[in-house]
Amino acid sequence: MKKIGFLTSGGDCQGLNATMRGVAKHLFEHYGSSELKVYGFKDGYKGLINNEYDVLTSSDFSGILNLGGTILGTSRVPFKELKNEEGMPRVKKMKETYNLLGLDCLVILGGNGTHKTANLLSEEGLNVVTLPKTIDNDIWGMDMTFGFHSALGVATDVIDRLHSTATSHSRIFIVEVMGHKAGWLTLYAGVAGGVEVILLPEIPYNIDKVVDVLEARRQAKKKFSILAVAEGAISQEEAKMSKKEFRQARENMKYSNISYRIADEIAQRTDLEVRVTIPGHVQRGGDPSAYDRVLSTRLGAKAAELIINKKYGYMAALKDNEIVPVPLSEVAGKLKTVPLDSEVIKAAREIGISFGD
Ligand code: F6P
């Protein structure tokens, strides 16, 4: 009897259920229902720590291909906290649950933080196979996470819809797109939505350069402008600060979000009317796009193949349009930000999009 545990950890995204379905369907096809027992741990690593799970049958994985969220629930259990605890008691408890149930492998779906913990568990001797989820697309060692494409559709739709009202009112609109450390979603949504300015965490902005773009458009009789701003966008002054100074500056910032600060800065420098739209978690909500369903299915089927071949300690990943195993030790602790020489940035600049630099 094969015993496989599943858990989803960190912020949710579209395609989590589709991916688990891909893994489970391949495993059930291979082993048959009588030779496979699947444990679904509740709310991420918490379920593994507290030995809280549901036994899932093949029918639990039916009808969930297009279902958003995660049927297992999720939570954030910060890696740093786990690792820094004296004697790592929660890691010990995870190992105890794994051994108590006699698991053959743990299938872990998550983003950056989740992968650090998955790698730790692998180093501690557990058999682990992971899958890269996040709307941020910032996991090292692969081309695209599942969830990114779906969130991109939502963020682009927001920008599309703002075009008409921005034109009617001759306004400046700032759309704040999710992504604290990596600007993939903002970059792609900005290009897909045809915005005038894109501000990314990777390219610190100069507000005067941003204002120049807006004024030039007004002089060219363009009635509106739209800015796609990553929630982690930073100014050139902030980029020069130490980590501590930056943290303090942001703690003292009177705005809840960077977009409101930028809106205020534009309003102070011009007589343009500025509005801010923050779609927030809507970007992570709802059903996965058709593309994500295919990607999830491919990734899931590959993860099952790794388990069948007892190839543990790997993440199934999309690379150069193939699904390949990437060692967890290479993934953990690294962040895939947008490279400054990105061809997408280059193309955007070539068609006149400003990055505020
Ligand atoms: O990592 C996914 C993500 O949606 C980020 O884009 C965003 O910064 C963060 O999660 C929001 O976290 P929370 O769901 O905890 O508010």
Question: What is the element layout, followed by pairings?
Answer:
Elements (H helix, E strand, L loop, with lengths): L1 E7 L7 H16 L4 E6 L3 H5 L3 E4 L22 H6 L4 H13 L3 E6 L1 H12 L4 E5 L15 H22 L2 E6 L6 H10 L3 E3 L7 H13 L5 E6 L5 H4 L3 H10 L5 H12 L4 E4 L12 H19 L5 E6 L2 E6 H4 L11 H8 L7
Parallel strand pairs: 1-2, 1-4, 4-5, 5-10, 6-8, 6-9, 7-8
Antiparallel strand pairs: 2-3, 10-11
Bound molecules: 6-O-phosphono-beta-D-fructofuranose.
Explained architecture:
There is one protein chain. By secondary structure, the protein is α/β, with parallel strands linked by helices. It folds into two domains: 2-147 and 288-331, Rossmann fold, CATH 3.40.50; 150-284, Rossmann fold (3-Layer(aba) Sandwich), CATH 3.40.50. 43% of the residues lie in helices and 17% in strands. It is built from 14 helices and eleven strands. The chain has helices at residues 16-31, 45-49, 79-84, 89-101, 112-123, 148-169, 184-193, 207-219, 236-239, 243-252, 258-269, 290-308, 328-331, 343-350; strands spanning 2-8, 36-41, 53-56, 105-110, 128-132, 172-177, 197-199, 225-230, 274-277, 314-319, 322-327. It has a seven-stranded mixed beta sheet, with helices on both faces. A four-stranded parallel beta sheet has the order 7-8-6-9, sandwiched between helices. β10 and β11 form a beta hairpin. It starts with a strand and ends in a 7-residue tail after the last helix. The structure holds 6-O-phosphono-beta-D-fructofuranose (F6P). Residues 11, 111, 134-136, 178-180, 231, 284 line the site of 6-O-phosphono-beta-D-fructofuranose (F6P). 6-O-phosphono-beta-D-fructofuranose (F6P) binds at residues 11, 111, 134-136, 178-180, 231, 284.
